[in-house]
Amino acid sequence: MALTRAAPAADLYVWPETAVPARLTWEPTLLGKLAAGARERGATLVVGSVEPLPGPYRLGAQGNAAFIFGPDGRLLEKSWKVHLVLFGEYLPGRELPLLRKLAPLTPQFTAGRRLRAVDTPVGRVGIPICFEGIFGADTRAMVRDGAEAFLLLTNDDQLCEIGARQHYQQSVFRAVETRRWVARCANGGISAFIEPTGVVTGATDWHQATVHVGGIRMRDDTTFYVRHGNWFPVLCLLATFAFLLAPAGVRPRARTGEASEAADEPSDRCPQQP
Description:
- The chain is α/β, with parallel strands linked by helices.
- It has two domains: 2-229, Carbon-nitrogen hydrolase (Nitrilase/N-carbamoyl-D-aminoacid amidohydrolase, 4-Layer Sandwich), CATH 3.60.110.10; 232-264, no CATH class.
- Helix content is 29%, strand content 21%.
- The protein is built from eight helices and eleven strands.
- Strands 1, 2, 3, 4 and 5 form a five-stranded mixed β-sheet that branches.
- Strand 8, helix 5 (161-178) and strand 9 form a beta-alpha-beta unit.
């Protein structure tokens, strides 16, 4: 919060994934401080935290979430991560006796219900959390739900520098695929502002604690990829398999005349004299 208070005036402040590693609504004092911070700055504040999921989930099910506070300090919205990291955020079959002892070694998150956009005072945005920024299908679903920009929250503290940089570079593809601005806020990784063309307008260094200032704009146009998805690469893959599996006699071959002419051409190489 000290960095946010010291930052230049802005309409939006974004904190990284699990910036508050606790069930935020169970910490009323901390929740009040965040609300007061948003009210003090007169801006929208997006904070990564942990939060139980509403609705038909098992008792105590918690998710990796983003909290959105309005300029007046009200908690406007919560958005849960849907695409969880296998073994990193959940253990399949953890209820089985054989795996029950391993479950405490893995954070047991529960996936949110669906990938969606959320309304904020600055516009309708998608909030991919960490792993979700790797998959074009995830950000495409958010744009189809009305996302006009992305606020990507991530915690790359467990990654080495090479891994953190590779994870960061995936965000460029998500911007280009959807023609959306991306504001990427990373803990232990690289924070950046990325234009819809893939141009990075500003990025921090790896593992740098700082306030990174930039601008994003909302867009409501849709790209070919957003409208049609991955059918083109799938078609290319099927065509490749069809070529590899086709009988040898069906594959294109050089014409006999061309082969004979090539064989009759004189060689530039002279045989070595004994």
